[in-house]
Structures
1.
Amino acid sequence: MAYVLTPLVAHGWNVTIPGVYALERDARARTISGIKAIIALKTYGTTHDPAALAAFDRHEADMGYGFLAQRYAPHQDLSAITPKEMPGVLAKTARETIPNVFVEFWSFRIMVGLGLAFIVVFAFGAYYSLRNRLDQHPLVLKAAMLAIPLPILACEFGWVTAENGRQPWTVYGWLPTFQSASSHGLGYMIFSLVGFVLLYSLFIAAELYLMFKFARLGPGVHAIPVPPASVAARPLYGQPGYADKSWK
């Protein structure tokens, strides 16, 4: 598995993938640098001190970790963190940079497992269908029927994998999710949610109505019309209305 995932993650074969503890240590160091960047930027905004601008330039790359630490600072003011509080702020920020490992582990594997199951069902279905023996294998037909809702689950688990895996970042290393949340009020959120639910409910109702309607009609209604035997027996160029297919 390592030989499969390593190129996907690091785009190389001989790259070490850091573990959770190593990532937390790196996040702790970057948080210290990010806090310095935020404080320097705030100082420069009020004093226009060139030294503060130079300090910000040195630590700018870690500014996002400073934003992340604001959640645990008193009143979200990084300059108000005391030396006694600093270790706790660093520890909480470092832990927050690691997404929920349990959710990520299983959501990814369920998504991939469903994708492999689709390939297996399709392969058997295609094989027996090409040999005109699909109706002789009810297990394949039942598996195909049971698999109908599974793509929705695969999409949802893929969404969970992506959204959980990028936590706590909206823009990786720069903008935390808690600082990019919508500022809309509760009423607006309820209105938009109800609107989406009603709209997609109408779509589902229309889809189900059409599906059941044409399923009850059966395939005979949609059969291609066959010309009369007296007409079909003639050469194609000799059939009446050949140019405009009026015999249909």
Note: The chain has ten helices and two strands.
2.
Amino acid sequence: MQSVYAAGLLTRLRVPLMVCMLMLAALLAGCVTTTDSRFAREADRDEAVDNYVRLATAYLSKGNYDRARNHLDRALELDSSDAAALATKGLLYQAEGEPELAEEAYEKALRSDSGYTRGRVFYGAFLYNNQRYEEAREQFRVASRDTGYEDRASVFYNLGRTNERLGNLEAAAGDYERAVELRRGDSRALLALSRVLADAGDWSMASRYYSRLSQIIQRSPQLRHTPESLLVGVRIARHFGDYNRESSLALLLRNEYPNSEEYRQYKALIADDNG
């Protein structure tokens, strides 16, 4: 009798137990569905913001400011704190000649995401263009510490330019050297490094890096000497008494860039020697 009672009790308990398990399963399924749906919505929103920012950047590069603004406004409607959208809005304001609004947008972007290195680079360039070199240097310094940033060589190049403006040639040379190490074929950084080393009187190293630059220019049909690169080469050749090399570069400078400031500097240089 006792076993029959126990069996009956177990049967009566099994029904509500099964109901509870089914309810729990339904509840968990509902949570997962709700959570997945929320994540999907967030992913869709993030993707939409990214797409709007990309479109805005494309229109901005073409000078179509109205369409760029339209897409940035849509991005910021979806996420008012998106650092990329805010930083790109800074570029837009900067292009439109609104420096105060541009700076406000850059600062807001970095407050939203202090690790958004691209926005920090934009802000550093803005400060540099406004001759606020100390502030620009700080932004580029912070940006240069981001080892995962895809264009880190350019950050060091900009840091070098800023240090050069501040008269710190030794630091500038170090920055340009890092840019060359990170992107070995960077003609821009090689030229800047050659020039700064020549200015500092380190002619041997200047000649070494200038030779690398010359080889890159010779191998690449897309590259050609600029007035600056020719004048730097002339100065290095003159220092080492390589008159054939000097004459060759000076002839290029005269023929290709007769109205350049660098050619005027070259004529002043030889006039001083003759005087």
Note: Residues 32 and 38 are 10 Å apart (CA to CA).
3.
Amino acid sequence: MQVYLRHVHLEIAVDAPDHPTAWRLLDTLRAVLYSRGLKPTVAPFATSYSLNAYAGINSRGSETLRAKLPDGLRDGIQAKETKVQAWPTELFLTCHRGGPDLTEMITPEDFLSAVEACAIWQRIEDKHSAARVIRNALVKAPLMPDLSSSILHMWQALENLFGISSEITYRVSLLLAELCVPVAPRSTTYTTAKASYGDRSKIAHGSNSPVVDAQWQRAWGLLQNVSKAILHRGSIPSANDLTDELLNR
């Protein structure tokens, strides 16, 4: 914990009955925020008390050590009377942060909007297991040091949406283009999906071509738009529904 505590920039409080539930809620919030353009980051551990509460906990029980603490840390919980639990979660030292179009800043209004969107996403997950896979890809793909593995992980989630086994490049790209209509032009999504699926195929088939950050960003941008489109629609349409939607326009 000491390695990460020196670099903490944000602490998020989650009200939940247990750690697994809290972690799922935090993952959902991060996925929503990432889909809206926030740079991916690391959440290395969770604790039962705020950092602001347990900072200085080992010194407050001693009058000598307590006197050496800053004024704001001298009063609070003490080790002899309080049990602080901690759970390691993402013990990584690297994270793909994406391109210059992503941001490290978020307004209070945008944060509250993302919190509200989490409730919608959880309802979608309850109906569509594929939404859980998309969420997992959004949160975990940036933490994979190897670009190739990260791209494959994202495409595993995207392909899982439709369960297509033939003419994959064309059909998946077309369906993703229709799925993302609420958030992006069809032609843009189709072109991006087709190019990114080409990246995925080269990696999966052992191409010797080096994988570059631009390819990762292409898959990431596609995953972002898919997540936004799912939230906008409030569900995940089937391949047949999207085909009908496309033909009836």
Note: The beta strands are 45-47, 86-88.
